[in-house]
Amino acid sequence: MNRTRVQDEAQPPDGEQDPGARVGFGPDEVDTASPTRAARLEWVVVVDEELPAGRAVNAAVCAAAATGVGVEGLLGPDAVDADGSRHRGLPWAGCTVLGASGERLLALRARAVAADGVFVADMPHAAQSTRVYDEYRAVVAASTGGELDLAAVSLVGPRNRVDRLVKGLALLA
Fold first, then answer.
1. What is the rounded CA–CA span in Å between residue 140 and residue 124?
2. Segment Disordered: which positions (predicted)?
3. What is the C-alpha to C-alpha distance for residues 153 and 114, in angstroms, rounded to an integer?
4. pLDDT at residue 64 is higher than 70
């Protein structure tokens, strides 16, 4: 059986983000008592507006999962209800889900990757058409970034920078 080790992180190609350059909130920045607009960083997930609802939700959730582990301090503390049952922490700074064409997603990803201080996670359509993760990785490896059709792109970065990147996009309908 051919298993891929999660630890075998490759160096990013020229122009790509350095995975060691972390984007996130420091412990002193997490302010769960303030409105989401007060947070220094903004989080948006942009989904291919042509996808049917189930695939769009899947793409957004998968891109968000990669973002949740990649951005420090994004999730707030757990909440406990009156019965003592724990509810896992959610994004305290909020998350907006927008829609865009496939062409716009590719351009957005390229501009976001080139922007300083912006975390980018994406989900190519190939992730929804393969059932084995190594097959998905092989499809991605055989494609250039411009050849990959994207189902979703997740961005976290300085509010003004992210706003410029997603300017003109509407909420996913």
1. 8
2. 1-32
3. 14
4. yes
Rounded to an integer, what distance in angstroms lies between the CA atom of residue 138 and that of residue 97?
29
Contacts (Cβ under 8 Å, ≥6 apart) of 116 = 161
Q: What is the DSSP string of 42-76?
A: EEEEEEETTS-HHHHHHHHHHHHHHHHHHSBT-B-
Please report which residue ranges of the chain form alpha helices under DSSP H.
53-70, 102-114, 126-129, 133-141, 159-165
pTM of the model: 0.87
**In the block, which residue shows the tokens 């507006």?**
49
**Torsional class of 130: left (φ above 0), alpha (ψ -120 to 50), beta (otherwise):** beta
* Residues composing the chain: 173
Which domains does the chain possess?
38-165 (3.40.1490.10)
Residue 44, token pair as written in the block: 């948006």
Rounded mean pLDDT, 2-12: 41
